[in-house]
């Protein structure tokens, strides 16, 4: 492959997966890792990628300038799908379902001391509350970009709670930015829990904000096993930026109202489904 062909491969990989690693790029393009790194450096200077530890992600722009973001841009169905509710508003929606999902998700956590990465979101905050109430193994290590998740876990006396650095997005109380994404890409936790504003079989997991999507993409790839926590109201909805495909996750925890056609798609891709 010449550079132009490798550039096309890199851009398509980012559009599909939200991340490309140096080893995968070198293997797929049949070049040395040093060549792959030089390609990413050149594309970064062109403004087409953002280099992170071990690879690259789509370039992260200010959330007010989403048009410049070159990651997976899902079809925007209509004005209603462009709107994002604030964290304080979402915290009061589907509370029963989120609590049930959180309790079911706890059963997927490996026994004994383990490392857990946790995404921002109200459903992952419900998971933090369940972990706090259950008095889990004190040897666990938690890494999150969510201020509410960190506050809930540490407020319960749990040790090993790590909040990544970066820029605070007040609307969702999530830490975003290149340093946050880079931190998660450097991890290999035992299990990761992600949340999303919407999910469909065709466009995967999506969210309205490009900067938050970049970090979510990193969290989705930060562990040996990735679990998505989504209540049924999120299923069938598309938002601006896709940060992970359906096949990126190993399991999905949802509620009893999840549509059967969505569950069939999960089974088709061999994704474990837990219904709370």
Describe the structure.
The protein is of the alpha/beta class and 276 residues long. It has 2 domains: 3-57, Arc Repressor Mutant, subunit A (Orthogonal Bundle), CATH 1.10.10; 87-275, 3-Layer(aba) Sandwich (Rossmann fold). The chain has helices at 3-17, 22-29, 33-45, 79-82, 87-90, 95-106, 122-134, 147-155, 178-185, 210-220, 260-268, and strands at 20-21, 50-52, 55-57, 72-73, 115-118, 141-144, 161-163, 167-169, 174-176, 191-194, 198-200, 204-207, 226-229, 241-244, 251-254, 272-275. The protein has a 7-stranded parallel sheet, sandwiched between helices. Helix 6 crosses helix 7, helix 7 runs parallel beside helix 8 (147-155) and helix 9 (178-185) packs parallel to helix 10 (210-220). The protein is globular and about 55 Å long. Residues 61-82 have low confidence and may be disordered.
Structural class: alpha/beta
What percentage of amino acids are in beta strands? 15-25%
Query: How many domains, in number, for the residues?
Result: 2
CATH-defined fold name of the largest domain: Rossmann fold
Q: Radius of gyration from the CA trace?
A: 18 Å
- The beta-strand count equals 16
State the name of the first-level CATH class of the largest domain: Alpha Beta
Secondary structure: helix percent: 25-40%
Count of DSSP-assigned helices:
11
Low-confidence stretches: 61-82
Average residue-wise pLDDT: 86
Distance between the termini: 48 Å
Give the overall shape, derived from the CA principal axes: globular
**Can you name the CATH architecture of the largest domain?**
3-Layer(aba) Sandwich
Major sheet: order of its strands? 7-6-5-10-13-15-16
Provide the succession of SSEs.
HEHHEEEHHHEHEHEEEHEEEHEEEHE
Sheet with the most strands, sense and barrel status: 7 strands, parallel
